[in-house]
Amino acid sequence: MRHWVAAVVLMLLLGSACATSSGTAPYVLDTQPRSVEYPPEAKRLGLEGTVDMKVMLGEDGAVKSIAFVHPAGHGFDEAASDYVRRTKYAPARMPDGRAVPAEFRVKIKFSP
User: In the list 17, 32, 49, 105, which could disulfide-bond 11, CB 3.0-4.6 Å?
Assistant: First the structure.
């Protein structure tokens, strides 16, 4: 029996607070790792893929938008964006502690 895995890599790119050395970048608040659902169609066909997304967080740490840099199709994009939207984030902060919007990249690799 095959075991299906999805690896998640968060790559910080363009966060407003990240431009300063004493500000803080957004980070994941979830203490329990969540699993990414492997798309049933892709699993049935034995497919793998990597989804690369730009994620925009608001000042409250909520996901405001997701843009696909490299979509993978076959249900991978939907599974990846669902995972990102279910994850809880702390907002980026300026050195004075003020929360600011931030943008970062997320790559999720689906492989058997």
Answer: 105
